[in-house]
Amino acid sequence: MTKKAVLLLSGGLDSTTTLAMAKSQGFEVYAMSFVYGQRHSHEIEASRKIAQKYGAKEHRVVTIDLGAFGGSALTEEGLAVPKDRSDAQMGTGIPITYVPARNTIFLSYALAWAEVLGAYDIFIGVNALDYSGYPDCRPEFIGAFESMANLATAYGVAGGKRIMIHTPLIDLTKAQIIRTGLSLEVDYGDTTSCYDPTPEGKACGHCDACQLRLKGFRENAMPDPVGYA
Amino acid sequence: MTKKAVLLLSGGLDSTTTLAMAKSQGFEVYAMSFVYGQRHSHEIEASRKIAQKYGAKEHRVVTIDLGAFGGSALTEEGLAVPKDRSDAQMGTGIPITYVPARNTIFLSYALAWAEVLGAYDIFIGVNALDYSGYPDCRPEFIGAFESMANLATAYGVAGGKRIMIHTPLIDLTKAQIIRTGLSLEVDYGDTTSCYDPTPEGKACGHCDACQLRLKGFRENAMPDPVGYA
Question: Residue A108 belongs to what domain range?
Answer without folding.
Answer: 3-193
